[in-house]
Amino acid sequence: MTDRYQVYFGGDLFNHKDLIGNALLATHIEEVAKGRYQCYLPQSLEQAGATALDIRNNDLKKIVECDVGLFNFDGTELDAGTVVEFLYAKLLDLPCVILRSDFRSSGEKDVGGDDWNLMCSFYPRTEVVQFSAIERFQEAMQQSDSLSDATHRLYTQIATQIIAKLDAVRKVPPLFKGNADRATELYRWALTFPGSGLEILAADDRFIQKILAAKIDKGLV
Known about the structure:
By secondary structure, the protein is α/β, with parallel strands linked by helices. The protein has helices at 16-32, 42-45, 52-65, 80-91, 133-142, 147-170, 180-192, 199-202, 205-217, and strands at 5-10, 37-40, 68-72, 96-100, 126-130. The chain has nine helices and five strands, in the order E-H-E-H-H-E-H-E-E-H-H-H-H-H. Strand 1, helix 1 (16-32) and strand 2 form a beta-alpha-beta unit.
């Protein structure tokens, strides 16, 4: 049976446009990939009444558990939480795809960088999907008879691009090269340094070994 991969989907989640857009894209990724990728959205993980610490720890724990990452880098300034999540994923050598649909040009392009802060660029096992959202939206509307049809057309197109990059980045050789001992130490450290309760998981070898065994079996570690 084809392996199934858990995708941590990080990005803005502060208004109805973010929330619906994230959910629509996650659904289309799962549908187009025929279940090969299963997206986990922080907006679905977070519970009403949870403390800020609970939210942070749950999100970091889910990044550790996931196989690949998808991070939305829209905006003239990147969302701070998404940046932290992305760098935490890179600490774990998680294969990642960066998505940017914002047509506004910013960042460090004048010195050979991307449309965002250069400190978030140049990491291994990272692919980029970038396009102008307004151009794609207008094209989809011109080719469709309704907003519903245009939405499906637009998100299917975006999902197809992302899936191609997820497939590609998964095949990049991992930094650990299958060394379970090195990976175990790094995962233990990744669960230790944030403190504030997350370190409890670092002492649970069964938690770490179960995650790593699955990732090694898929060739991700």
